[in-house]
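Task card 7
Instruction: Convert sequence to structure tokens.
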Amino acid sequence: MSAIVRGAQLARMLNAWQVAVGVRGPGGRRPEYVVLANAVRGLLIDGRLALGVRLPAERELAASLGISRTTVTAAYRELRESGHVSSRRGAGSWTELPAGHRVGTSGLWTPSDDAGLIDLGCAAMPAPPEAGVAAAEAVADLEPYLCGPGYQPAGLHVLRETIARNYTERGLPTEPDQVMITGGVQQALDLLLRLLVAPGQRALVETPTYPNALSAFLAGRARISAYALGPDGWDADLLLSTLRAAQARVAYLISDFHNPTGHLMPASLRERLPATAHAAGTDLIIDESFVDLALEPELAEGGMPPAVAAFDRTARVLTIGGMSKAYWGGLRIGWVRGPAPLIARLAAARVGVDMASPVLDQLVAVRLLQRRDTIVAARRKQLLVQRDTLAAALRTHLPEWRFVLPRGGMVIWAELDAPVSSALARSAEELGVRVAPGPRFGADGTMERFMRLPYTLPETDLVEAVRRLAEARRDLDRPRRHSWSSPAVVA
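Output:
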């Protein structure tokens, strides 16, 4: 079943489309239906309106916009002719792209050995100073485990106990048997998809979203439905109605400092999600990779919304997290928190993949988590300075770009002055800056007006990167010959 956007919801997305009515171009005044069709087309191309969504009936949209049904009928006809809408008599109209719908691209990459390259493709930081000490302590902790086989598919009890305690301290009571250790957050998602989603079953994802998550869904041959995030985050009614209509096997949502938009899901929506998911027969996979990285004091000091799982009464919420963002990506430790029976099934399924996570890495993770308060506080302080530095550089060198300053996480999702993200990424690499263009985070043909910019590098690098981006943007308006290179990391 397709997701449905109601007339009032689409009217909110279009908000000021009527302002353009009366603007004269070379051919004179543009008809209202052309302006409306262009506005809907713009929502699609920018990724603000998802593909495969059923549009409201002509009469309903006309009433919501306060215009004639004839205008809406003509606009829908215009969209059908341009390939942005398909219709079936008596069934309705659906959004699409002229070239068809193909979701996502791989985040696969090869690291660069160019010392002069400023790499903004990765939202990740170097290891904290405590990592070396933690590793040395972990080696000393290893001896009791050496007499055993080393295979514990669910993970070491000491690490599961530590993670369960952290959840409990956040207000989500958790026992160790509700936690399974994985080889990073990406493997946590992959294992859940292997267990829960058969080929051909439907999965609901946000757009934009983390591209390697899209790759995992596509590798499992899931049928993807999308919910488009707006500039202010989630439209609660639209997300819940999409969840009900999609009837997906799973829904993958990034609730905390969303990657790439930086949005923080409000508690009111978190509270409603589990019951709606249960009614739709959908399991929620909630990615909390950035949950520790609140940057504003009121959030960092106990003001974060409760976990989505805190409102779960029907065992529908599976929470995934890991060490990559707040600690170090080189420590491939992630986890799944869920009902104990499902965790046991997941551990059994994991044996066919890689048996277990490395014992020594898990012991390092324990030691780092014991220093959580110190490490996370330092990360937050550093990221806050770097976020403000990047924002100031964007306002200075690229004032036409727009963005919402994130309250946490590691990235700014910038809206460019034109749909040139992919071309700009190629041009910028010639000037020594690597960035992830918007289409890497959405469906093909969308998100060209957006670019993800992490603030995980030193301040001087961030300022220089933005200066080079501004130069590359100016270059796009001047004819020149480019030599294209391969896409790089998205993490």
